[in-house]
Predict the structure.
Amino acid sequence: MNSNLIWLVFTPLIGSAIAAILYNYKFLDRLITFSTFAITLFLVFGTHVGQTYSMNLNFMGRMIPLSWNVTHLSIFMLYISIVFGTILTFYSLMDRSRMKGFLLLLILAANNWIFTTNDMVGFFFAWELMGWASIVSVLGGRKERKSRHAALYYALMSIGGSYSMFFGLFTLWRLTGSFSISSNLAYLSSIVGVHPWWVLGIVSLFFVTFMIKAGIFPFHTWVPMAYAYAPDTFTPFLSAVMSKYGIYGMLLFLPISLMEKGMPTVFGLPWVNYIFVWIGVITAVLGTVLAFFQDDVKKLFAYSSLSNLGYIVAAISLFTSVGVTAGIYHAFNHLLFKGALFITLAAVISRSGTSKLSEMGGLWKKMPVTFFTFFIGIASAAGIPPFNGFGSKWLIYQSMIKQHLLFATILLFLASTGAFLYLFKAFHSIFLGQLSHNYDNVKEVPVIGQIVEYLLMFAMIFFGIQPGYILRPVGLIVKSVGLNPLAVMGNGYVTGMFSNVDMPLIGWSLAISFVFGFILFFISAKHKYVSQEDNYTAGQIPQDWGLTPETYQFSWKFYEPMEKLFAPFYRIKIDGFFRGLGDWTRITGSAVKQVFVGNAQIYTLFAVVGLIILVIAGWVA
Amino acid sequence: MRNDTPILVKKITALSLITILMVGFFWAFTEMPKGSSVNVNNRVSRLYILKNVKAATKSLNSGNFFAKGMKPLRSDVPYSPITFGKSANLEDGAANVVTSIVVDYRGFDTLGEVTVLFLAATGVAMLFFGKRKKNIIKAQASLIMSVGTRIAYAVILLFGIYIFVHGHLTPGGGFPGGAVIASGVLGLFLGNDHYESNHLGLKLFESLSGMAFVIIGLTGLFSVNSFLANFLPTGVIGDLYSAGFIALIYIAIGMKVGAELSAVVDSMIVDTEEEWS
Amino acid sequence: MMQEFLQNYVYLIGSMSLIGIGLYITLTDENIFKIIVGLNIIESGTNLFMVAIAWYPKAVMPIYTLTNKLSINGKVIAADPLPQSLVLTAIVIGLGTTALALTIGIKIFEKYGTLDVRKIKEAGR
Amino acid sequence: MMFFLKLIQSIGVGALSISVGLLFMGIGRKITARIHRRYGPPAIQNFIDVFKLFSKNSISHGFAYDLGIIAGTSALLAAVVFLPVGQINLFPANSSLIMILYLMTMAYLGMAMGVSSSGNPNATIGISRALTMMMGYKVPFAAVIFSVYIFARTGSLTNIIAAQSGGLLNWNMIRLPFGFIAAEIALQGMLGEKPFDMAIAPAEIASGPMVEMSGKYLGFGMLQHAVGIFLETGIMVNLFMGGAPNVWIFVIKQFELFFIALLVNAILPRFRVEEGVSFMWKIPLLLGVIQALIVVL
Amino acid sequence: MSIFNNAALLIGVPLLFAFSIPLFGLISKQLTKWVTLLTISFNATFSLYILLAHKYPSIVVMGNWLPPFGENLYIGPVAALLVSLISVMGLLIAIYNLWSIKKGDVTRFSVLFLMFTAGASGMVLTGDIFNLFIFMEITGISSFALAAYGPEKRALGGAFKFLVVSSIGSTLYLLGVTLIYTQLGTLNIAEIAARINQTTPGLLTFAGVLIVSGLAVEAELFPFNGWVPDTYTGAINGVSAALSGIGAVSGVYALFRIAMTVFGKDGTYVSSYGNLNFMAVIAVLATATVVIGELSALTQKNVKKMLAYSSMAQMGLVAVGLSIGNELGVYGGIFQLVNHSIAKTMMFLILGVLVASGVGENIDDFRGLWKRSPFLSLAFSVGAFSMLGFPLFGGFWSKFAIVGASIQRGGWYDFIIGLVLFASIVEAFYYLRIVGYMFSSDSKFPKLKTPWTPTIPIFILAVSIIAIGVFPQIVGTFSAQAASEFTHKMSGYVLNVIPTIAAH
């Protein structure tokens, strides 16, 4: 029966092949993609923790064991990724973006493989498959040149990452002679006390890969480009699911830090973990700061994703029970709300035809369902109770304070407040404010899109007030990595270190106060609806103030004061390093090219010089 | 080193490089066997000279050829003394040991060698391919020249044929013979302003003689079950009709080389104009 | 002394000098044909070197004739025939290469209009 | 039964917060007027205003406008029930400070959504300023909160109050003086009083967020401000002044804090937004960080 | 020792037909191309038969003189695999040539092409160190002439550079061979390999330096590879394809046959006798080649030139893999050789078709190619992905093995592979840039009409890349056997040729 683990990988591959054949027929392609996701979901229902499977791959006459092992973490990740994928592909049935279903299915196959495999060969293979399929997927964005550029950038980062992992896994293989993840991890844990630097080196090779995939601080530069210029329907998957692969990988390796007895500690943390907490915090703050002034809405939310992943990394790096719980919980929450946000963005962009904030505005009347989904999405993302983003953020703060990481916590809080700012900016610029006359004929998304949006709304509220449904499996994961799980008092409770939060209570409180608000609203004097243009400044023509209709919408420089505040930040070009590296390589390339001068004589000279060097070497040796 | 390096720098660099290289060479030669200590008996040539390769093979197959430490015992291979004009049915009948190596023991090299020459000639002809221009007469050949070359041509041709036919007995063979023949053709070109070689004939000679070589080789493969094996009786050493297929091959080579070099001369002398349209 | 030098080193020095001269020409002369000549000289040096290793003092020619005994008491006294046959091959190969090189040189002169090796290149690197 | 009891108590707390808030606003107007050598309106003027506004017809710009403005008040009311008010502590197990702060954010979101959907750029400018300012004061306030968390080893207001029991010297105000000063300055920003009132700067942007409000909408706005004052000063009282044994003392303590804010408001001019934020990130944040270092080390 | 003399036909038949092609040329010029095609297809069939029917290891005795006395061909796993590769590539390029070679001296071109393929096969097959030189020259001379073919003048310049450098190289090789002969008195590779430690170490080192330098010219290792860019760029595309898909294969084979079998010292990692470890020398040269090649290709705007530099770099990668010297590394190297041969041949052929249909060689001309010719751009991308080591494409497995082996070896190979991987990122950049250009939609030009003849080889090659990627054992099985031959010089080579050499 355990062979269904294989089918988890093969079903999407087969689906992908069929979809690839039919890819010219967009609807069929999408339909097959959706149904494959649904079938895979059924296969996941048949999967349970502790299932293992192994087979041998013949590699140069030597058998390489491929093995599968379902852990609590893997089954959790499988469920959340596939359920989200199913919803997304259902949404994509009526979608007009150029996402290729078969590529998504390839990613699904890699997804299932990554989450269930217990050998590094399979892990690496799946990782590569996932990386390349996503790179090709990014290519189909609306802005062709930019998406090509983004895909190239992403590809280079991703190749760099996979080479790093390549190096790491073979180094482990050299040391242990095995590719099995679990036994290699056990080996690393066993020698970490003896050779901490070795272990650190090897693990950091893997971590570079994971950080690149998740887009953590020094390697975040590809994220905004790739997210922004990917096909609109693919971006939700990229942000919601694919960024979690890096987190998954980090979670695999983090238990080693438990054993790091030989390492000096800072605030009770091994210093490596401490550094990672700071990396997470820097990512969170950086994402926030950079998100403020984006005019491209997808870029804005890409930076937002960055920021949230910073939270997750900071939390799981603590490797305390609260920290890991909070990290995984936030990973789930981020998947849900950022998925929902990007899906609504896809809906908006497909209707309005632009992703520029300064060109949109006032769409709330035209697309009410989308508007509400987006509203709840940003409420979740801002961590407003009782929606789903709150609990995890709350736990993250607690886990940080528990370690007395005060500055880090303050910065995270800054990031969170900032998040509210840019989220509102996006909200305002898309849905609120003046409706441009370009969008007079914009309609709500088709029924399928609305169904998905209702579903997502429901999910965000449901998992907000019933966090127990997530916290219980998270608790199992925490237990399986060797930490004490947090107590789960009930489905509605988030249990913290210092206090508890009763989410349904907050829900009730809000609901009742809303009822009172509405009662007050309806019993008081009448109101009448007027058009948006009928307002305080209605008598004036914007042009008189030197304003164009775009700037009248006031999203042009929403946080202008902040620009002055953060000016020093902007002077540090974060991706300058990578661009510099690229430029340096290019210049070196041009210089090296000069070696080949095109003169037969000089080529002969090279050969003679080479010969002489060898002769001298032989002489000396 | 760049294209615009001054010539002096270039020369000094080249000189110093070559000096280092020469020093290296001479240093290596100090370890080489001196001229006075070269011992053919330590080399595989001993077997070729004494024509006891078959005996060596037998000893090899019985495992006695290589001593401990994989040192070959070439001097221990039994041999029968060879007397010129008397010894018959040797494994290789050529009196000229170099020829026996070139054509028989290492005949495959020679096939390759012929091919190289053939390819060079083909390449030359290919690059000069095009519409033939009228011969531009650079200098009128004198009467003596034009008559003399024609007479000499016959002699040279005959001499060339003699050289390759006697390849297995005397110094010489297919290549020198062919070259001699080609020099005759060159003489014709120099002596006659309007001389045109018979292209069809050259081509036929070239192809057929080359094919003959391969076919002889293939005959060996099908009759003696080894490519380029000597399938003819070797006769008495020193006889003209001896040494099996060596003479046949040398005739083929001679004709081929003669035709090829003539063709090279032809293509180089005759001006052509390219046509790619 | 002199004899020993002649026996041991003169061919080697000769061949190496040829190689050196050829290499020098190849490395310094800008004329294509001179470069080809240089290559040819290198080849000659190599061939001389190969023949030189075949010969040793008092060696006889490796041809059976009525008067020429190649072995005395089981000891071969002839010059080594194998390098000689190799040289034969090498000469022919050198001939072929030279012919082709000359042809290419002629065609280069036709098309580039120059024999300067520095000018035979494309604009973009 | 329990549910209804809590419900009624909650309604009571809500009503208390509204009335105390409106009262404070009225007193504030009076005091400010006296400082400005004016007579000023009566202290209950704001109650009158609210009733008046709710009975007037008004215009609206759509359901988002309605919803947002209702949400602004309701969310604050929902938050206020978790605040321990003197002896009234409705949900002692559930009074996490961070939770209350985040729930307050809902109110800002609702308010901002409502006024922005009107499409008036002045409102949006006001919102943008308000949010920018929020970024400014939240950070030093967070520094202080986390210092208190670490100091008291708890995050629940109930427990923080309990930790300060036993007299004046146990108050965090005394124990964490730098933190208190920082929080006090942050409170000035939270209340939107001068020098941090750039969001509603009437002369520049026609009262900013309130520009499109009329009738009951403005009424809701006033209610929200009232509850906001109650909630924010209440948090400060609980954090630094050891809570209160009963409601009256609680209100008096709140008033002390509000009074300081009023005095500052009355005498200081207004900052520009970026000046305000950078001020917040210099002095209060520095104080907060000093406090945090003292606590941690 | 099993003797399989009929395999001499692999050399004999092409020679016979090469000599006879001028006669066919008298009948019809087009016929000669078909003769070439059929001859190479005989070679391909026969070598595939040898490979698939597992007729190896066996030797082919020439002239009935058993090794080490006469000459012989040795068909080991390496030779069987590479001869099949060379012949199949030759066959596919010959199919392409049916369409592409229409002007000029078609007859002689056919002869040269046929002998180029046969010479490369001979180089791979031969068991005699001097015979190797002869086949090197056959390959060399035919490739000089082929490279000079074509109406463009740059062809001549490239061919001349190739000729000069290659002449120096073959001279060095010949000197080295002579030095070895003075020591051991034999020219048979197996005997030399077995007795290499009986030589004077100093002279051995010197001979090794000469031979390695000489062969490095053919194997395209820096600094002996100056000719590569100009020659590849100058030659017509079919010839460039042959040079990278056939010539380079035999060059690398020869280099490692000498370094690993002749000079090699068996061990966990093959090293070499003499004062200098030639495997290490080659590793250094190869790394330099990879880095310099990729960096030079980075800023190329001319796609053909870029492919040329990339070809050089890929050969460096192959050499890195082989120079690691354990089974996994050699496996990876040979696998990479096969992959590179297939992919680069295909890319040059595609370039040829494109150039013939009026698309320029410049990278800007590739803009929007996807719309103009979907098949060609897809195939080109497949090749590029294989080069980059995209999973499910052939190149993945070989790169995987090479990196794995170098890390397994550790030590300074960690550094080498670090450099190589850096270079691979550079490579990824320029290949993906082209792919990106091809799939952009901003093209104003009409659709291309692709003739069907050249699409056959391109299609076969593209399919085989994917097939190898999905089922790596297609090549992997043979590559593993080849690795075992290379890494065990006595049991893999010497004893198969001269079984009684170690009788004592």
Observations:
- Chain A touches chain D through 78 residues (CB under 8 Å).
- The mean pLDDT of chain A is 82.
- Chain A is about 70% helix and 5% strand.
- Residues 1-238 of chain A form one domain.
